[in-house]
Amino acid sequence: MPTKKIKTSRTATAAKSDGGMGAFLQRVFLMMFGAVALTGVVSWLTINYGMHLIMNQHGFNFVFYALLFGGLALSLFAQARAFSMKPQTAMILLAAYAASLGVVLTPLIAGALILNPASIIQAFFIAAAMFGCMALFGYKTARDLSFLGIFLFMGMIGLVLVGIVSMIWPLGSGFMTIVCLIGVLVFALFTAYDMQFLKRAHGQLADKYGRDQLAVLGALHLYIAFIAMFQYILALLNRR
Fold first, then answer.
1. Is 6 part of a structural domain of the chain?
2. Do 211 and 156 meet the contact criterion of CB atoms below 8 Å apart?
3. Which residue, 95, 24, 37, is CA-closest to 226?
4. How far apart are CA 171 and CA 177, in angstroms?
5. Which of 231, 222, 237 is nearest to 40 (CA)?
């Protein structure tokens, strides 16, 4: 019993020493990887049972584009209103966005299953390794990464615009390879940038409610970065 009390005391002391940062990041990553898992499940269900809902003989139908642009609008709304809504509501929006993205990613994943099924696992583990390294770098580095914000935002807008244009006019494979490489770089840097932002913002928020709101926002940011890296890496592995 005394040993158990000592261990409990040490745990409580450690939690106080980091200001609750450990528990905060645990919540962030739990929600983030929960969203990743939901995306995977929805994509699997769509591939096996719902392809007819998003495609017809002419290609993608209205449902696919509604989920694509609706999901994008939903993510922007959730980020803009992160500190104006209840954490529970924000979590529901995160889940809805993750589910919609699971459907949107289905064509890419289905194509990879035809060309090279192993590339899906390879892309996931490469993205996970890059995500982990960049998240650790962003958390540990003493260098201020805030200067990257405007450049990363501009890069992300450029990638979105290129993606939209590629739906209308097919772009060359060489050009798309460059786009994918840029996409991996942008969202890898976004991971480090977001981790540093979360670390600093957590220290500035004293109330639990605000930190809960920040946790959902952080989970959404990191989820987007991880899924984007996975998407671009998978596209690179299946350039054919």
1. no
2. no
3. 37
4. 10
5. 231
Please give the Cα distance from 131 to 238 (Å, whole number). 21
User: 0.70 exceeded by the pTM?
Assistant: yes
CA distances from 141 to 15, 107, 133, 145, 161 (A): 21, 38, 12, 9, 32
Q: Go through the chain and tell me how many residues it has.
A: 240
Domain-embedded: residue 7: no
Domain assignment present for 121: yes
* pLDDT tens, residue order, the chain (240 aa): 444 444 444 444 444 546 788 899 999 999 999 999 999 999 999 999 988 888 887 788 889 989 999 999 999 999 999 899 999 999 999 999 999 999 999 999 999 999 999 999 999 999 999 999 999 999 999 999 989 889 998 999 898 888 888 877 777 778 889 999 999 999 999 999 999 999 999 988 878 899 999 999 999 999 999 999 999 999 999 876
Residue type, 75: S
The verdict on residue 2 lying in a domain is: no
> Distance from first CA to last CA of the chain, Å, rounded?
63
Q: How many domains does the chain have?
A: 1
Helix axes 173-204, 21-45, angle to 10 degrees: 150
Q: Which domain holds residue 87?
A: 22-237
